[in-house]
Amino acid sequence: MTLNKNIYLALSFVLCATYYAKAQDVKPPEKTEKNISEEIEIIRPYKPILAEAVKLRRSPDLENVRTYKAKYNYLLLDKKLELNTDIKKLQAQQLADAKIEEPTNNYVKGGIGSLTTFLGEAYIAMGKDPALQAGAFFRHFSQQGSLNKQNESSQQLSAFGRSIGEKTTLNGRANYQRHGVYFYGIDDNNPTLNPDPQKQAFNFLELEGEAINKFTPDENALSYAAKVNAYFWNDKFSAKEKQLTLTGYLNKRIKGFNLGLAAAAEFGNSKDVKTDISNNLLRVNPYIKLQAGGVKIVAGANIVQEFGFSSSLRFFPAITADFTLIPDFLQVFGELKGDVNRNTLKNLTDENPFLNSNILLKNSIEKISFSAGIKGTGGPGFGYKARFYSKEIDNLPMFVNNFTDFNKFDVIYDFDKIKLLGLEGELSVQVSDNLKWTGKLNIEDYKAGKEQNVYYKPQLRLSSNLLFAFDKKLSFDAGVYLQDDSKAKIFIANPLNPDGSYPALPDNTKEQMVNIKGFVDLGVGATYKFNSKFSAFAKANNILNSNYSKYLYYRVNGFNIFGGLTYSFN
Q: pTM for this one?
């Protein structure tokens, strides 16, 4: 029954819905002439109207003090707060004590090599206080060439001390040198002329003391210096020489100016079998110095009094100027001066150890000397200097072979004025801490007075040195020396006067010019450090094995090599 009842109800509901839908249909009115409607659209400007609450004010309403309170939704978490009050502070990690390497001021060196080469060297410095220093140095070097008695040896022993006080610095030095050679010169045209070469040895003892006041920034400070130097020299025969030199210096700073006075007194005596020469000089050099704004000018005079075997008073200019055009990059400098230079047995034998006995000594007069040039740096590790100079010299000493003993040299003087024009250049390039190169060039043109040439004075000299560190242990160095041809004079007849002296004017009929060929000498060396104390070294000289001569009849040693060990310690 229930099912039938539900079916009847559903059918009734459908019938009612259908009838209601049909009842919603509306028939449109029929179009007739009496029933016509017309739609008219009217367009006018749009004027928006805003409510008062929406309008914005140009200026704030200061009377409206209502505050806006935002509504927030909070989410509360139930979590326990933990207090870690027992956290420890961070402690710096303790590093291992750094090992401080003390500088190795002391060393000993020893080496041997070809040509019976022996080398011994030592240096010892005492005291770590920079204000109080003392030390000593020793060196021995000997070598034997391939020619008969081509032996040479030299020794040096020096000691020094320095004390830096609050106002004055004191320096002291003692120096002893010995140089031994043989007169081994050989004439290739007559090789039997010198069967038993004589031995020569020079001894030199020097003492020196100096006092210098410390620098002070006071613009009106007074600075001073004083030095005493004395030496004693002799050879294996009868030549002796002694000299005492006293030097003083005073300078008063007055703001941008410096007023100063330098003075020196030289007392010397040279003695041989037939000669006894006292040669003394007194030199006074007053000056005024201006230094400001990249300009440095020193203007003064050099007053020289000669007394002893000759007496004369001479006045020379002493002017130097230095202008900085580009700081640290370019400076222009110039110098105008004159001086009297003492010729001594010590200086002459240092240049040529094969001198004869009874050498005539005279002072050289540098009448006028002018030089000018540029110098500066082109950045870190690069430096340069170029200089042109001109000199006029009286009594320039020159070496000539003795007529009787061809392997011994006498000293003669050109009794007329000698003119010299020269050009000098220096260059230094340091690419890094591991690579450095230096070079020097000299070009000189001599014009002799009475003599035909200026002897043993080459026109071109070039020297260069290269240092290269491969790493912290291995390093190399190389050097080259180049010299142009020079002239020498030999006598084909006895040129001496009856009293044994050389005539003032040379006799061209009794002499002959000889050309001394130029040469190139190349050497290389290497050093290897095993550790901070031990290192090994090796050096090779005259790699090209050139049989050249600096002086006539005296060939230098050919290719030779030597090496050894160095020990450094504190």
A: 0.80
